[in-house]
Amino acid sequence: MLEIRPALGDPQIISLPQSGTITVGRQSPADLVVNDQFMSRAHFQLQCNGPLIILFDPGSSNGTYINGVRSRNVPLRPCDTIFAGRTAFRFAQLVNGKPALEYLPPSPGEMLPWQQQILDVIGSTCNYAILDGAISPAILDLLNQSGTYYQSLYEGEQSADIARYGPYVAQLQPERPFLPYLVKAAWGMFWGVFLGSDQSFEETRRHLRRFLIVDNNSGSKSIFRFYDPRVLRVFIPSCEPAQRKDFFGPVRCYFAETEPAPGLTAFTPDGQQKVSLE
Asked: Most exposed residue of 40, 91, 98, 117, measured as fewest CB within 10 angstroms of its CB?
């Protein structure tokens, strides 16, 4: 089965054939046509051979991402999430005649006053989150269950093997129940940071990738985990004005949880401010 979750509108589920190839794209001659301006006319193919389903991208303009990693020719596993354009697809096997897929309920439940305050502040200011996959496998599960658009900050041939241990940048979409779950279930666990940017997802991601690897004084390189709120809280105040300006770039603000929990600090190119929580 293949679940189709458009950026807008209701999801649908289609059956995949036992054999043959299905082309998915924005318009004919694709076998499965999806109304998504970010997709190519023939964006990707699903090559079906019994239980083996291989996704093949013949060279789409914006690429095809499996679990946040750009992929060209990959066998699918149950519950894999595919992004083509801004449309999410999930591959699932049938269990007792039903697709074996998990979903987030529309709401995580009643919010405490301080949780609702954090949700209001971040929801009105930030349109992206950077989440550290190394902290918990629940991060990738939550991303896939929510339908939130996301990509790994890693690229290259090895990215599929290490993506689950690295950072994901996720779009905070008002129509998805993703941010409330982050605040309700993960605040205080240092899953990542939140940011507001005036640039597109692709441009914001490109800017963030510039800071993944830094040069050490010894001449070697290392991973810079600026997406850890404990690191960000120390790094930004230590920056020289020019370095701070370069780090922010198109980013208007960063928000990071603070200790003792619950706590929240906002960082801008000009300063920082602790958000008072009740």
From this structure: 98
| Side chain identity, residue 1 | M
Instruction: With CA atoms as reference, report the closest residue to 193 among 208, 206, 207, 203.
Output: 208
What's at 69, amino acid-wise? V
pTM of the model: 0.91
SS3 102: coil
Helix (H) or strand (E) holding 138: helix 138-146
Q: 210 vs 5, 22, 81, 130, 204, CA distance in Å? A: 31, 37, 26, 14, 10
pLDDT tens for 249-273 read: 999 999 999 988 788 999 999 999 9
Beta strands 32-33; 19-25: pairing state: parallel
Residue 194 parent element (H or E): strand 192-197
> Could you tell me the maximum CA-CA distance found in the chain, to the nearest angstrom?
60
Please measure the distance between the N-terminal and C-terminal CA atoms of the chain and give it in whole angstroms: 47
How many of the other CB atoms lie within 10 Å of CB of 203?
13
CA distances from 98 to 51, 130, 196, 262 (A): 16, 33, 39, 40
Contact 146, 138 (CB under 8 A): no
Give residue 274's identity as a one-letter amino acid code.
K
CB distance 266 to 272 below 8 Å: yes
71-121 pLDDT, tens digit per residue, is 999 999 988 999 999 999 998 887 777 777 888 888 898 999 999 999 999
266 close to 254: Cβ distance less than 8 angstroms:
yes
SS3 130: strand
